[in-house]
Amino acid sequence: MTTVTDILPISGSRIEAIDRDSNLRISKSLALFDTIRIPYPRHVETQSKIDYVHRLGIETPGPKKGLRILGESGQGKTTCAHDYMRLCQAEEGDALPVFSTDGNEDSCPKSKRVIYVALENGTTARGLMVSILQSLGDPFWNRGSEALLRSRALDIIRNRRIELIIIDEVQHLNSRGSSGFDVTDTLKNFLDKGVAPVVFMGTLEARPLFERNLQLNGRLLPPGDLQVLTTSVDDQKLLRGFCRQLDIQIVEKGLLPKRSNLEDPKILASLYEVSGGVIGRVVRLTHAALESALRRGADWIETYDLALAVDRWAIPQGFVKRNPFAST
Fold first, then answer.
1. Within this chain, do residues 138 and 12 fall inside the same structural domain, yes or no?
2. Which H or E run contains 237?
3. Beta strands in the chain (DSSP E)
4. Other CB atoms within 10 A of residue 41 CB
5. For tag attachment on the chain, is the N or C end more exposed, with fewer CB atoms within 10 Å?
């Protein structure tokens, strides 16, 4: 069994620079890495589904449809929402903001037509209204009963002619509100009243939320859930294409002078094992490996850096138990 300490780097030093000047330089490089945008086919498809329910809501009077998008954490659901917001913002004539791939809510673009609502753990029906009002910029977002907040949210959405509501992290919704009604009934009423179509995004933990309310499900389009990559030929082709583009972008942005050959079959197999088919984990592992390469002054991300990234990030985070890059 090979360990990380048995792997020798080819370029650069084995000693990593940890001084303050290096921290500043590497921080700037990794911030630039976070701006990389790759047209991943499954994200493009998801954005198209969001666009469809949006346009359907504009063209259809009366009750609106909803769309469910669930998936493992790291599948890129929030990224898809933010990217769609950017498209809407561009159509509205506003300058495109710099967007980070880390899914930071603070970097979410602001659209005049679409609102994005990220929920916190334990959100009740009242808390949902509070979050919506905050996203709408209402200065009185926390004043009043659940019914009053809901009424005010509906009025503002109508007056501002909001065309789409994206609710993220729906797995954080509590099953019951203060009034005792199921919170999913509140969501169903939004659609029934024809206020705006709603996109519900969250992890797989949110499935029971929808399964217990068939009336809400009846108002939703076919699920747009994001699936993890499998070992199928098509899925492995997607992974290879994504890693190739990521590799190219790292060089084109001047982060490293040479390609890292991330599409090599052995590297791909290990990346797949560590990520479990979740594309966001591939990005985050590459981020950690890039830091190692930069601190060593390497010309490319080597197996040595990827092995270190697994030991330092993937294993402690519980994504994988063994290090495939350090195994023979």
1. no
2. helix 233-252
3. 66-70, 114-118, 164-168, 198-202
4. 12
5. C
Query: What is the value of pTM for the model shown?
Result: 0.85
Q: In degrees rounded to 5, what are phi and psi of residue 168? A: -100, 155
Residue pLDDT, tens place only, 130-175? 999 999 988 988 888 888 998 999 999 999 999 999 999 999 987 5
Q: What number of other Cβ atoms are within 10 A of residue 90's Cβ?
A: 13
Q: Which residues contact 84 (CB under 8 A, 6 or more apart)?
A: 47, 50, 51, 114, 166
Is the domain of 77 the same as that of 98?
Answer: yes
Number of domains in the chain: 2
Please indicate, yes or no, whether residues 83 and 193 belong to a single structural domain of this protein: yes
Interatomic CA distance for residues 192 and 155, integer angstroms? 15
How many other β-carbons are positioned within 10 Å of the β-carbon of residue 327? 12
Cα–Cα dist 247/267, whole Å: 12
**What is d(CA 40, CA 43) in angstroms, rounded to the nearest whole number?**
5
Adjacency order of strands within the sheet including 164-168: 66-70, 198-202, 164-168, 114-118
> 135 near 149, Cβ under 8 Å?
no
Please state, as a whole number, how many other Cβ atoms lie within 10 Å of the Cβ of residue 324.
18
DSSP letter at 282? H
Q: What proportions of the chain, in percent to the nearest 5, are helix, strand and coil?
A: 50, 10, 40
Q: Which domain holds residue 212?
A: 41-217
Residue whose entry in the numeric block shows the structure tokens 């591939």: 282
Q: Are residues 297 and 187 in the same domain?
A: no
